[in-house]
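Journal club prep — side note

Before the paper discussion, L.F. wants everyone to see what a predicted structure for a comparable chain looks like in token form. Sequence:
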Amino acid sequence: MSASLLRRGLELLEAPGRRKAPPGLQQGRDGPRAAGAARRRKAASEPRRNKATVKGRVVKSAIEEYHKKKAVNHLRANLQYMLKGRFVANKTITEQVLAQNRGRKSKDQPPKKVAKKKPEGTVFTEEDFRKFEREYFGRP
């Protein structure tokens, strides 16, 4: 970028009404040192703005930021939406959809249903036990 373009860009960015002399003409009659001292005195008298802050920045409350980013529980609204629907899919169709979406890995497979074992009852009745007792022990 040429120096002339750079100078023009800086002139556009300057605040209106605050025209400064070009650097070559800024030196006084006393030489470059006197001009530097005058510049330092002028800079010391003017109030400086804090360069650490951004122009137009608004200080935000930490509590407001926390509430803004806090997770919201949508469970109640979602349940009402789901329960509001009148259409209920057929159980066989839902099973087919679940089977299609299931992976091939063993961790993706549903646990196999185990049939409940019925308690085994005795084959003998109470009368058979009494009869056996009479025959074995010889009691009438």
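L.F.'s comment for the group: The first helix runs from residue 3 to 13. Keep this in mind when we get to the figures.
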